[in-house]
């Protein structure tokens, strides 16, 4: 699948807990709490491709002391566009992941990895049945026929979060190199700074 658009979201409806997360001088706010992980994931996924532009907006719906959510738009040099979003006032959550390619779409709905991949099978759909809207008939938004698409289950990748801590221990003992290097950490930190700057100045930030 030739990727063009990726959406990564974490949303809830309980606001910010009454601890360090709502204290600005202790690293509070959703950019630092959840954003660091989502932004790090995206940079890791896209790899060494340059991130050209960042545009972001922070929210203060349930908390005026720190950001209680944010939306960041990232434009990479290879043409991939990414939307990263965290919200704490969402009573209906959107999918955890939503990915568009030239000939298909993938979705992961929740933490339980419920989702699917739907892609075109290469058949020419000549007889499109229009769908009726309030404005009349449209073929553009008509659903695909079942014989022109295939639906697949998501491939599950086994992982263990404890591998990170095992690597830290092995690095301290001099047995392994750290899997996370300083340049990766610096890039994520600079990206979070760009998110804050973009929201504060209401403009697109040229990143790399």
Summarize, please.
The chain is of the alpha+beta class and 208 residues long. The chain is 23% helix and 29% strand. It is built from 3 helices and 11 strands; from the N terminus they run βαβββββββββααβ.
The largest pleated sheet is described as: 9 strands, mixed
What's the architecture, going by CATH? 2-Layer Sandwich
- Proportion in helices: 10-25%
CATH superfamily: Dihydrodipicolinate Reductase, domain 2
Give the CA-CA distance, first to last residue. Answer: 26 Å
Uncertain stretches of 5 or more adjacent residues: none
* Overall average pLDDT: 93
Structure overview:
The chain has helices at residues 30-46, 162-172, 182-201, and strands spanning 3-11, 51-59, 69-76, 81-87, 97-101, 104-108, 115-120, 131-133, 136-138, 149-152, 205-206. The protein has 208 residues and is α+β, with helices and mostly antiparallel strands. It has a single domain, classed as 2-Layer Sandwich (Dihydrodipicolinate Reductase, domain 2). A hairpin with a 2-residue loop joins strand 5 (97-101) and strand 6 (104-108). Helix 1 packs across helix 3. The longest helix has 20 residues, at 182-201. The model has no long low-confidence stretch (mean pLDDT 93).
